[in-house]
Design a protein that fits this description.
- By secondary structure, this protein is of the alpha+beta class.
- It has four domains: about 140 residues, Rossmann fold (3-Layer(aba) Sandwich); about 150 residues, Alpha-Beta Complex (Hect, E3 ligase catalytic domain fold), CATH 3.90.1750; about 150 residues, no CATH class; about 100 residues.
- Helix content is about 40%, strand content about 15%.
- The protein has 15 helices and 23 strands.
- Strands 14, 18, 19, 20, 21, 22 and 23 form a seven-stranded mixed β-sheet that branches.
- Strand 19 and strand 20 form a beta hairpin.
- Helix 12 packs antiparallel against helix 13 and helix 12 packs across helix 14.
C-alpha cells in the first residue's frame, strides 16, 4: 500500500483498486494493471479527489474475496479513512454475485462510501443503478463459464498425458518444449541420494538432519536461488533447514520413475480454491514419459520399506538392518530385536507375538543376529554366483518365480475378496430378515436400530477392504519389475564382502523364521528368504556352486551351523 504522508481529510481521500487475474489476460491490454492505474487516477482527480491511495491485486481471481490488496483496503475503509472507492468495472471488485451485492447494498452505504466503476458508468453518488445487480450476476456467470472451459481443457490435456502441474524438484521444463520435463542434474543428485540413504536404513528425520549438516539447499531455497518462481508460502526457514515431511514427499513422488500423474487433486467448485486429494483410482497415470531419476524397482522397494514398522534400534541408537524384515513363520507377526542384558554383544530376535509375552504364538522363534548376518550374506553370494555364471538359467528361474509369486498373491487376494463379498450378501439377507421381524413386532424398534447400525457399519468396513484389495491387485499387475531389472540389482553385489542395509532393502522382501526343531538329536531351524517381486528362489542342486561353511557359537557347549541346500541352521551339542 502506498499512501500520501500529508494528512488529508477523509472527504478528499479515494481508494483506487486495480485487479488482474489470469482469466482477465484474455481481455486485452486495457485490463493491465498499469492501464487500470492510469484510468482510475484520472477519474478520481477529475472528480476532485486529491489524496489517492492504491491497493493492488495482481494475478488473483475475482471469484474469491480473500485477496491481500482487497482485504487491506477493506480494513482501511472500516476505519473510515476514505470517502470513495474507484474500480475499472464491477468485475474488478469481484466475480461473486452475493458478496459484491452485499458490499453495494450494505457495507458501502453503511460506511458512507462512494463507489465508482468507471467503465460500467456506475457512480453511487448519482443514486442507485438498476443495472448493477445484473452486471454482478453476469460477472459471476463469466467466471463460471471460464472455469467450465478450463476444466474441459484440463481434462483433455490431462488425459493426453500432458503434465498438468509444474515439474517436481529434480526436474525442469524443457526450454524447447514446455510440455516436456528434463532432468535437473544438480537437484536430481539430491533426490537419488535421499533414496540411497533410505535404502541404507536411515529414517526420514535422519536424512533431513544429514542434508542440513551438509548444507544442501531445500527445494524451495533451490528454486529461489535459481530464479524459478514456484508457488508456496509457509514459514521462512533457513535455506538448508530440511523437514522430514519434505523428505517423505520426495520419497513418495512417483514422477521420479519417469511417469506423469494427472488429476491427483481436484476442487469441488470454481468458488473453492482448496485442492482435495483425489482417489488413486481416478488418477491418469502415464508411464515412462520422461527420463527417470530413480529406477522403478528402487522406487517400489522404498514404498514397500516405508510401509513396514522399523522402530527398534541397537544400543547405540542406530536401527538394526533386519528390522521389519523378519516375520514369524507360524503366526505372521514381526520379530522384535533384543540384546542380552549382561552381554550386549549378544543380539537376537524373537517373535513379538510369543505367548510368554502375553501373545498367542507358542514359541519364541529365537534367532541370533550374528548367525543371521552370515547366513543371509552367504545366500546372497550364492545367488550372485548363480546369476554371473549361469545368467540364462538365472533369468529363467527368477522370471518363473516372479510370475508364480504374483499369481499366488493375486489368487489369495481374489479369494479374500470373494469371501468379503459373500459376507456382504449375507448381511443384506440378515438385514432384510431383521426388517421383517421388526415390522411383525418380533423385535423392538430400539433393537432393530442397534442391529441395523451394526450391520451397516460392518458392510461399510467390508466395502473399504474390498476396495483396498482390488487396488493392491491392480498395483501388483502394474509393477514392471522384470528378470532383467532384478538381475541388474543382483549384479551390484557380486563382490559384496559385507552385508549392508542397502543390500537387504534392494534384494529381500522378508525372511520367514521357523522355530528350531529337534531332528535325530540335532536341533534344526529353517529360514526362508523371500526376494523382492520374485518370492522364494531355489538354486538348482546340480549346479557346481560351492556351499559355504558357517558356524557360530551361541553359548557354552552349543554352536549353530548352516546347511545351505536346505537352508537349515543346526545346533550341535544342545
Amino acid at each position: 500500500m502506498k499512501q500520501s504522508t500529508s494528512k488529508k481529510s477523509r472527504e478528499n481521500t479515494a481508494f483506487l483498486y486495480p485487479r488482474l487475474s489470469r482469466d482477465d489476460n484474455l481481455e486485452g491490454e486495457s485490463y493491465s494493471i498499469q492501464n487500470q492505474k492510469k484510468l482510475l487516477t484520472k477519474a478520481a482527480k477529475d472528480m476532485g479527489y486529491t489524496n489517492l491511495v492504491m491497493f493492488v491485486d495482481d494475478g488473483v481471481s475475482g471469484v474469491t474475496m480473500n485477496r491481500p490488496g482487497f482485504n487491506a483496503m477493506m480494513d482501511e475503509l472500516e476505519k473510515g479513512h476514505a470517502a470513495a472507492v474507484f474500480v475499472k468495472d464491477m468485475s474488478r471488485l469481484g466475480r461473486n454475485y452475493i458478496e459484491v451485492g452485499r458490499l453495494m447494498e450494505e457495507f458501502f452505504p453503511e460506511h458512507d462510501i462512494r463507489l465508482v466503476a468507471v467503465s460500467d458508468g456506475i457512480d453511487t453518488a448519482e443514486g442507485d443503478n438498476e443495472l448493477a445487480p445484473i452486471k454482478n450476476l453476469f460477472n459471476e456467470w463469466y467466471a463460471r463459464d471460464i472455469s467450465k472451459k478450463r476444466r474441459i481443457s484440463n481434462k483433455i490435456k490431462g488425459n493426453s498425458g500432458e503434465p498438468m502441474g509444474p515439474p517436481p524438484y529434480g526436474y525442469m521444463k524443457d526450454p524447447d518444449d514446455p510440455k516436456h520435463w528434463i532432468v535437473d542434474e544438480e537437484a536430481a543428485a539430491v533426490v537419488r541420494r535421499i533414496f540411497d540413504l533410505t535404502l541404507s536404513g536411515l529414517g526420514t528425520m535422519q536424512i533431513a538432519e544429514r542434508l542440513e549438516a551438509d548444507g544442501v539447499l531445500t527445494p524451495k531455497a533451490y528454486w529461489i536461488a535459481k530464479g524459478i518462481n514456484r508457488a508456496g508460502g509457509g514459514k521462512t526457514l533457513p535455506p538448508t533447514h530440511w523437514n522430514h515431511s519434505t523428505v517423505i514427499r520426495i520419497l513418495t513422488t512417483q514422477e521420479y520413475c519417469g511417469d506423469v500423474l494427472n488429476f491427483k487433486t481436484y476442487s469441488k467448485s470454481y468458488k473453492l480454491k482448496r485442492r482435495i486429494a483425489n482417489d488413486p483410482e481416478n488418477w491418469a497415470v502415464f508411464k515412462d514419459v520422461h527420463t527417470p531419476i530413480v529406477e522403478r524397482p528402487v522406487w517400489e522397494r522404498v514404498q514397500d520399506k516405508r510401509g513396514k514398522a522399523r522402530k527398534r534400534k541397537k544400543q547405540d541408537g542406530t536401527p538394526c538392518m533386519f528390522n521389519g524384515l523378519l516375520i514369524c513363520a507360524d503366526c505372521g507377526h514381526n520379530l522384535h530385536y533384543h540384546f542380552n542384558q549382561k552381554n550386549h554383544d549378544i543380539k537376537y530376535y524373537t517373535c513379538s507375538n510369543y505367548k510368554g509375552d502375553r501373545g498367542t504364538c507358542p514359541t519364541t522363534h529365537y534367532v541370533r543376529v550374528d548367525f543371521l548376518e552370515q547366513v543371509v550374506l552367504a545366500e546372497i553370494r550364492r545367488l550372485t554366483k548363480f546369476a554371473s555364471k549361469y545368467e540364462a538359467q538365472f533369468a529363467q528361474a527368477i522370471l518363473g518365480c516372479s510370475q508364480k509369486n504374483m499369481e499366488a498373491e493375486r489368487e489369495a487376494k481374489q479369494k479374500e475378496i470373494y469371501a468379503l463379498q459373500a459376507r456382504d450378501r449375507e448381511l443384506d439377507v440378515l438385514f432384510e430378515k431383521l426388517y421383517e421381524d421388526n415390522v411383525a413386532g418380533k423385535i423392538s424398534d430400539e433393537r432393530f436400530a442397534r442391529m441395523s447400525q451394526k450391520y451397516e457399519a460392518e458392510q461399510a468396513e467390508l466395502t473399504v477392504k474390498v476396495k483396498t484389495l482390488k487396488a493392491e491387485i491392480n498395483k501388483a499387475g502394474s509393477q514392471s519389475v522384470t528378470a532383467d531389472m532384478f538381475l541388474s540389482t543382483v549384479r551390484k553385489y557380486t563382490r559384496a564382502k559385507k552385508l549392508t542395509s542397502s543390500m537387504l532393502n534392494e534384494l529381500i522382501q522378508y525372511i520367514e523364521v521357523h522355530q528350531a526343531e529337534k531332528v535325530d538329536d540335532v536341533w534344526e531351524q529353517r529360514l526362508t528368504i523371500h526376494y523382492n517381486c520374485i518370492g522364494v528362489i531355489d538354486i538348482p542342486d546340480e549346479l557346481p556352486l560351492p556351499h559355504p561353511e558357517i558356524s557360530v557359537n551361541t553359548r557354552k557347549g552349543v554352536s549353530v551351523s548352516y546347511a545351505p541346500n536346505a537352508f537349515i541352521a543346526t545346533e550341535i551339542g544342545a
